[in-house]
Design brief:
Elements lengths: L1 E5 L1 H4 L19 E9 L5 E3 L1 E6 L2 E7 L12 E12 L1 E6 L37 H8 L2 E6 L7 E9 L5 H4 E11 L2 H8 L8 H27 L8 H4 L2 H4 L5 E5 L2 H13 L4 E5 L7 H7 L3 E3 L17 H9 L3 E3 L11 H10 L4 H6 L3 H6 L17 E4 L10 E6 L2 E5 L5
Helix pairs in contact: 5-8
């Protein structure tokens, strides 16, 4: 048995922020975590509890009486004398690994800025897992993220939901495609207006998206008719990507800041009966009751950034709380690299400071993004059968002095504070 006891006050006498990103250690994927306060995000908190992990999944969770400590010789035991054990944090919208830090054009694969309609692009083909942001995410207890193209195009391409530790992107996929990126407002206008082609107005953005969706519907109808009649059908690569959107398997991921753009996105989603997430939603607090009635979830942020565009002049940390209180399911985003990925829990904390309920702050970086991104069957809460993606902190991660003790992904310790690399 490999036994590790952690006293957070002693742990951080160790200088530096060394990471334990070496290979699988003894007992990894099969372990017990005992002690501390377990915040399950599934209805109850468990003081001095126990989590049993087998084969990368949560096998048992409960009080010490509910889950007796019976480690096998190859099972590691991590004892937390004082700290908070909770689901790994989730970033619901970012460009990590696609827009790399410090690499300029060579590391920027976020926008294919020569064609405003590019639904067939796939995030997984551009994510560089060697981007330093992945290490920063793991240090912060962030175990998964929704990653995809930017907002320069009316249709940018397909997002993917990925784990944050590994070298081969194919091994990190939880869901791909996970959403189809579309963008309204300033960004597509700025990118194409100087080129003498559409879109140069908000009218053109909406019209081009409607045209593309109409073509996709016609394509889906032709394909179905061919199948029903037993006829051959030549698939169109540029149209196939729309089928999971039209079938309701994945949502539109709509870049919207201003009130008018939010309502345009809602109008188009209604016309085509599509699922959708409202990403950024900077003026959502001005129309909270309307958005609650419409029923679309909001991924709010990046509020920890400058108001460097006209459409974000009303951006504020209060938006998350106002929307949440109105009944809108909300998640917090850094939009990395607009705000750095490691600031995710602090952004949630600033939303709490501005009116969001504390418990809802926890939800905004765990179970809510899991539900919004369509992966709550695997991540977002600590429950038997779910992936063993766990973050252990010295306290509330939304507080600035809180430190990460452990980050665990699929039952493997990928970060251990104070451990040499």
């Amino acid at each position: 048995m490999h036994y590790t006891a952690v006293n957070p006050m002693l742990m951080f006498a160790v200088s530096g922020t060394a990471l334990a990103f070496c290979g699988t250690e003894i007992g990894d994927n099969r372990m017990y975590i005992i002690g501390g306060m377990i915040k399950t995000m599934a209805g109850r908190d468990i003081p001095d509890g126990c989590i049993h992990i087998k084969d990368g999944k949560i096998a048992e969770i409960g009080s010490g009486k509910e889950v007796p400590l019976q480690p096998a010789p190859n099972e590691r035991v991590i004892k937390i004398s004082d700290g908070l054990i909770m689901p790994g944090l989730i970033e619901a919208h970012c460009h990590m690994g696609i827009t790399e830090e410090k690499k300029g054009m060579e590391g920027d694969d976020c926008n294919e800025t020569v064609d405003p309609i590019t639904p067939y692009l796939r995030a997984i083909d551009a994510v560089n897992t060697m981007d330093a942001a992945f290490d920063d995410a793991v240090r912060a207890g962030i175990t998964s993220a929704m990653i995809g193209p930017g907002s320069s195009n009316v249709v940018g391409g397909q997002f993917a939901f990925l784990k944050t530790r590994g070298r081969r992107v194919d091994d990190l996929i939880v869901k791909a495609p996970a959403a189809m990126k579309v963008a309204f407002g300033e960004n597509p206008k700025v990118n194409y207006s100087g080129e003498g082609k559409s879109p140069s107005t908000r009218m053109a953005i909406a019209a081009m998206l409607r045209e593309e969706l109409t073509k996709a519907e016609a394509y889906a109808k032709r394909k179905k008719q061919a199948a029903d009649n037993g006829k051959s059908f030549e698939e169109d690569f540029r149209m196939e990507c729309w089928l999971p959107v039209l079938d309701g398997e994945i949502p539109l991921k709509a870049h919207v800041h201003r009130v008018d753009d939010i309502f345009t996105a809602i109008r188009i989603a209604g016309e085509f009966s599509l699922k959708m997430t409202l990403d950024h939603c900077s003026e959502g607090h001005m129309i909270a009751a309307d958005l609650a009635q419409e029923g679309f979830p909001a991924i709010v942020g990046p509020d920890l950034a400058s108001r460097n565009k006209i459409e974000v002049q009303n951006m504020a940390f209060k938006t998350v709380g106002v929307l949440n209180q109105a009944g809108v399911m909300t998640a917090v985003t850094t939009d990395h690299p607009v705000s750095l990925i490691q600031s995710l829990p602090l952004c949630a904390g600033l939303a709490v400071k501005s009116g969001l309920d504390m418990e809802e702050g926890y939800k905004a970086i765990t179970i809510h993004p899991a539900i919004i991104c369509g992966v709550s069957d695997r991540v977002g809460s600590l429950e038997p059968g779910k992936d063993a993606d766990i973050a252990i902190f010295t306290g509330n991660p939304m507080e600035v002095f809180t430190r990460t003790l452990y980050t665990i992904i699929d039952g493997q310790v990928v970060y251990e504070a104070g451990k040499p690399e």
